[in-house]
Amino acid sequence: MALLAMVAGGAAALSRAGNLASQQSQRWDREGRVSRVAIQRIRESISRANGSNQFPGVVVMPTTHGSKSFPDRLVVWRCINDAAPRDPQVPYTDELLFYLADPLAPHRLIESRIVALVQPAPPLYDSSAWGTLLQSAATPNASAEWVELNDALRVVATNIGGQPVHLPALRFHPYYAPSDVEFDDYASNLVPWTELAWPLGRASTASGCRMANIDIELQLGGPLMPTPVVAVGAASATFQVTP
């Protein structure tokens, strides 16, 4: 009888382990599919972005904790229904899409549009005004439309400057061609306009085709996912700029 009890107990333990492994596998599979859909949605928005001399289509707005910055917020100039922008040089606030983690629940990846605020977006150098705008985008209220893209972002608990911080495992890495440094060199008469690093050489003395590329990385985690699942993607937008 004791031996039978031991065998039964072992079988039950194996069954529980098998069920747990199955649940983990199903969770990984589900979240893998959801993350691919989320990344594809972001990629599509980037590829359809508007751009200009004053706003390069897509911009990464890092979150700052103490002296450290984390590139986990993305702003895309994509008008509602892909309509033409009101101003071809400066986006209006309701023409912007924000991709970021919910500050109150950082495991949630959110797409947000501030539909109730219609005014020109602040200059990119105005970090204070952009901070206010990003806070509005990250706050669920009547002025912002939210779409939850994923609810299983890995959250890293750490300490920065003596303060506990919970960071979403979400990163956006930008690359522009020509770069901002090259445009500064052109403005300083160090490099001719046509000799900037134009993608595929698409430039004339009157204009050029600039490219903005964003690498996307997110990690999924949670109680049923002890090993993080990494999902990556990339997308680019091209737009005309002038000297």
Keywords:
3-stranded antiparallel β-sheet; alpha+beta; 3 helices; 37% strand; 243 residues; 5-stranded antiparallel β-sheet; 27% helix
Detailed description of the structure:
There is one protein chain. With 243 residues, the chain is α+β, with helices and mostly antiparallel strands. It has one domain. It contains 3 helices and 12 strands; from the N terminus they run αββββββαββββαββ. A 5-stranded antiparallel sheet has the order 1-4-5-6-7. β2 and β3 form a beta hairpin. The longest helix is centred in the N-terminal third of the chain and has 46 residues, at 2-47. The chain is globular and about 55 Å long.
**Structural class designation:** alpha+beta
Spatial ordering of strands, largest sheet: 1-4-5-6-7
Poorly predicted regions are: none
Task: State Rg.
Answer: 23 Å
Shape: globular
Which whole number gives the mean pLDDT?
87
Strand content: 35-45%
- Give me the strand/helix succession: HEEEEEEHEEEEHEE
Taking the sheet with the most strands, its summary is:
5 strands, antiparallel
| End-to-end C-alpha gap | 89 Å
Level of helix content? 25-40%
Number of strands: 12
Number of helices: 3
Number of domains: 1
